Each structure stands twice: as structure tokens, then as C-alpha cells.
Amino acid sequence: FMKSSENTSAAIKGYKIRGDLAKLEGYQSNIEHARSYLTDTESAMFHIKELVQTAKDRILVGLNGTASQSEREIVSTEIRNIQDQLLQTLNTSVSDVFLFGGTNTDSKPFEVRDGRLFYNGIDLDNVDSDQEKNLKENSRYIDIGLNVKFNPTAKVDRSTVFSYSIPGIDIVSSGKTNIEGTEISNNLYNLLEEIAQEFDSDDYTYDKVNKLYGHLNSASGNIINSITVIGSKTSYLKFMTERLDTRTLNLQENQLSTEGADPVETIIKFKSQEMAYNAALKMGTRIIQPSIFDYLA
């Protein structure tokens, strides 16, 4: 049919199918956006992993029993250079969007005040449980076809949307840990600063730095965990893409059966009408024979 009035019920069904196809196209576009974002995030995460590993290697050089005070000071300078690179990477932005800033789009999520690392304006060494929960949940979400729902407070139910960003607090960690009576920072940036200060100190002791180094090894596990999370999110997006492709194909088949013409039947009818038309032309030329007057103007 060419008009909705020719087949109202089929037209209604056809419009619904078109709407569903448009939604699927939007979901696929969102998935591509999320996949690109995760790719950029993963690249930054691997760079952070390399920086922390380099810092560990330099710390081991400083921990060498034969290292002199001047050599330890060189190591502390290298650690602080790594800190600067770490801070820059944590503030990585793509298309004016900070990868690890959650919903923060106005300013760099990480900054250093008085030698301590702040994340979205909160001191990571002195964060309370509510602040930590909010920072961890401050992620970017997108609709990929999970049937978005709203909770009683009119907020989106986060289980029905896809989180495609990694909060910066999950990478660097927060708070402090008491180790043998000493309060030690959990976040990577401040921990590296404490190690650098110990190497610079005239009261340097191997045991103190070794304790900090052990804690650094534990804290850096968050980086591997975050990379693993990115991998699982990317795999899920691949699964959803295949699922949406299947749904799109099914809808296209339904659309063809609802409002489309059967290609085989249509071609047969067209060829039959074409043959009839050509036959009528030949018959007409035989009934009315052309004469010389037909060519005189």
C-alpha cells in the first residue's frame, strides 16, 4: 500500500516498527560513543600503570643498601616528576570531557593543594564514608536499551542504564591506613610524595621506606582492577551490539512483511505488464501500417 488509509492496521504496525528501528539506531550510536570513551580511558589507564611501575623501579634503586644520600635525592626528584605526569594523566580530557572526572565537566577533577591530592574538591586523605560513596557513584551513564526506569524519587534507576566511565577515586584510592602505628596515605599520589620525602630526609631509614613501598604495591592493585573493569564493560558493549543487530534484522524483516512489497512477486508483475505493453505496441504498428504521409510535416 502507498497510503495509510489503504491498510490502517498494517500502517499502525509499520509506524511502530519504524519507531523501534529508530530507537535501536539511537542505542547503537550510544554504544559507539561509550566504546570510544572506554578505549580512550583504557589507553590512559595503561599509561598510569606504566608510570607507577616506573616509580616502583626507581624506589627499589633508592632502597639499595649501597645508595648514597645524593643518589636517593635523585630518586626523589624522579618520583616527583612521575607525580607530575600522573596528575596530568588523571586529568586527561577528550573532546573537553575529563575521562576520570565523572559528571564534572567544568574543571580538572584532580588538583594538588598544600602537597595533598584533591578529587572534585575533596581531600582524598580525609574523605568520609558518604563522600566516598558519592564520588564512587559519580559516573557517566548512557541508555543502551536496558529499558530505562525511574525510582520513586524520579531519578533514573542506575541498574537500567550503562555506566561507561571510571571514577578517579577508584584508581588512586582514598583515606589512610594505620601500619604499625603510622598513618599512611592510601592514594597513589600522596603515597609517592611520602616516599620522596623519606628519600630526601636526613633521618632516612630503610624500614620506613620499605613499609611505604609495600603499601604502594597494595594500593596500585586498583589500577589493574580498573583496567579489568574496562575490559568487562567493553565486552558487555560487544554483546549488546550483537543483540541489537539481531533485533534490528528481525524488525527489518517484519517491516518488509508489513509494509513492503515482495521483490519476486513485484518483479514478475512488472515483467508481465512490460510484455503486455510491448505486445500492444507491436499490435498497433501492424494494424495501422505507416505510410509516407507519416513522415511529411
Secondary structure elements and their pairing?
Elements: H1 8-63, H2 69-90, E1 93-94, E2 97-98, E3 110-113, E4 116-119, E5 122-123, H3 129-137, E6 141-142, E7 162-163, H4 168-172, E8 176-179, E9 182-185, H5 188-200, H6 206-219, H7 221-259, H8 263-287
Antiparallel strand pairs: 1-2, 3-4, 4-5, 6-7, 8-9
Helix pairs in contact: 1-2, 1-5, 1-7, 2-5, 5-6
What can you tell me about this protein's structure?
With 297 residues, the chain is mostly helical. It is 62% helix and 9% strand. It contains 8 helices and 9 strands. It has helices at 8-63, 69-90, 129-137, 168-172, 188-200, 206-219, 221-259, 263-287, and strands at 93-94, 97-98, 110-113, 116-119, 122-123, 141-142, 162-163, 176-179, 182-185. A 3-stranded antiparallel beta sheet has the order 3-4-5, with no helix packed on it. A two-stranded antiparallel sheet has the order 1-2. α1 (8-63) runs antiparallel to α2 (69-90) and α1 packs parallel to α5 (188-200). The model has no long low-confidence stretch (mean pLDDT 90).
Feature tags:
single chain; 297 residues; mainly alpha; three-stranded antiparallel sheet; two-stranded antiparallel sheet; 9 strands; elongated
